[in-house]
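Quick question, first post here. What does this chain look like in 3D?
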Amino acid sequence: MSESSSDSVRRATVLVYASDARVRDRVKVALGTRPSPDLEVEIVEAATGEDVVRRCDMGGIDLAILDGEAAPTGGLGLCRQLKDELDDPPPVLVLLGRRDDAWLATWSRAEGVALHPVDALQMTDAVLSLLQHNAGVVGTGH
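> Answer (accepted):
Ran it through. Tokens below.
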């Protein structure tokens, strides 16, 4: 990448949480490392709720994608915990198994919702929308 083009590329760190490694893989594949020409993402994986809280508490997470179907710690309860306990929690996109559970995303204070099975277009649109909405958080270089 040339020097001038790297100046216009935004970079974001996205945490992907699911207790099932296959779900994490699907999200990573759907999103890729370059969801748009002007955005490069680094994906950090978490397999437990404790990992999510610890990593978000450290800072540097621009967006968290949490699987609402994860067990034993579901992404909806985890989202609410992040919003309640952290001084500066990242925006959260929750993955839901059923559209009818969208009200739970409101309860958890998630900023976005996507549905299982993971769809690349839906995932990319949701992530870009949330990162654009929180553009002040996304850095321009590491």
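The two ends are 15 Å apart (CA to CA).
Residues 4 and 136 are 21 Å apart (CA to CA).
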